[in-house]
Amino acid sequence: MIDLSRLSATQIRDGVADGVFSAREVTEAALGRIDALEPHIHAFNQVTPELAYEAAARIDEAVASDVVLPPLAGVPVAVKDNMNLIGTRTTCSSRMLENYESVYDCTAVRRLLDAGAVPVGKCNLDEFAFGSSTENSAFGPTRNPWDLDRVPGGSSGGSAAAVAAGMASISLGSDTGGSIRQPGSLTGTVAFKPTYGRVSRYGCVAFASSLDQIGPFARTVEDAAIALNAISGHDPMDATSADRPAEDFTATLTDGVAGLRVGVVTDLLDADGCAPEVRDTVRAAAETFAALGAEVGEVELPSTAHGLSAYYVIAPAEASSNLARFDGIRYGHRVPDAEDVLDLYMRSRAEGFGPETIRRIMLGTYVLSAGYYDAYYGQAQKARTLIKQDFASAFERFDVLLTPTSPTVAFGIGEKADDPLAMYLSDIYTIPVNLAGNCAVSVPARLSETERLPIGLQIVGDYFAEPTVMRAAAAFEAAAGFDTTPPVVKEIQ
Q1: What is the dihedral of CA 135, 280, 283, 460, to 10 degrees?
Q2: Which residues are part of the catalytic machinery?
Q3: What are the tens digits of pLDDT across the range 400-444?
Q4: In whole angstroms, how large is the CA radius of gyration of the chain?
Q5: What is the pTM of this model?
Q6: Which structural domains are found in the chain, ordered by start?
């Protein structure tokens, strides 16, 4: 049996190309692993064997025809269930869209499949991507492969867990305030949030349109770079897509960090709630970069102290607007016995949306309402501008910045479910990057001493500085030597 947890995307592609194994055999291994692990983890809302075998057959036909294979030929991939793919449901883990069938493809997903990837399923998430634990799903929580009693982070927790458990080699998530990087940290995976506009958002159900960005999960930096190669590029279907030439993010991965200017963001390290082991991990990472030849210094981003407050005004405001379309009229859940249109709207939305979604819609509607727009939304946008300016100043001195990804390791399922503020604080280090629009990656750094759970390091870059961030991440990854296979997965197998 092929052990996908020990093979990189490149190794799978080369193995298929060289006839070591077929794309169908790889697909069978992935689906077999899902069958074994999914009852324990619940990373998927839908497994797609028909689509997977169809894609694998096309790859094997290409091998038989002796044509040059695309870069992800035969590689099993999964996508977050807020991204459309014809032949699947796109539910956003909500009763509102429980039976919605995708009628078109998300650009990023289509590009991944055009690169030869094999789609094995759609991954669980916090409903409409509202959450930091994947407990808000209408279909039940996803469990962390490192400890089944703990959360995998969110909102892209299913995508992270699928890769951590080896059920997929690469997955796609969406990141509005940390929803790729935070679960990446908690599951010990490489999790990349590109610069806003680098990857098309077309076909991804919108949460907050000025913040959302699609990015990859992988078990290695190289695999994440290959995936980003596939999904990046201008898309005329997305008005926010950056019109930039294609880049090869693998080209400079092995260039090292000698002479790279690395800034440690000290005020974020001192933030309340940061676990001592997390703080120590960032300090140790800075020493690693110095030993590798980087020029390491310290920097402050004072306006990021307002990031959480600004985000929880801006993001719910945009969510309130984006989710207004789910009204029981055109698509989605609809009560069958409404007395009138108002009753139809109210009951369909009350039944279709979960508590956290309702909370954010109400908050967003409030801050956009007459008399409160300037006091809340306007002020939040001013804070956002200050945060952008802080990052811009920092990148005049440094090439990349180091922060924690998450203030703690993975917390217990149910531990923060009744305390929204405590849950929101899980994204305190990732949110400022979304507000500014920069790129960033979470790289597994080490295991905590007591719980033996992953701690992630966040490496932040300037706008469209993905090659530099990837190069720094690859150098750190090699030095850290993190074993990405969760022990729980080994026990279940």
Answers
A1: 0
A2: 80, 155, 179
A3: 999 999 999 999 999 999 898 899 999 999 999 999 999 999 999
A4: 21
A5: 0.97
A6: 4-263+396-492 (3.90.1300.10), 305-380 (no CATH)
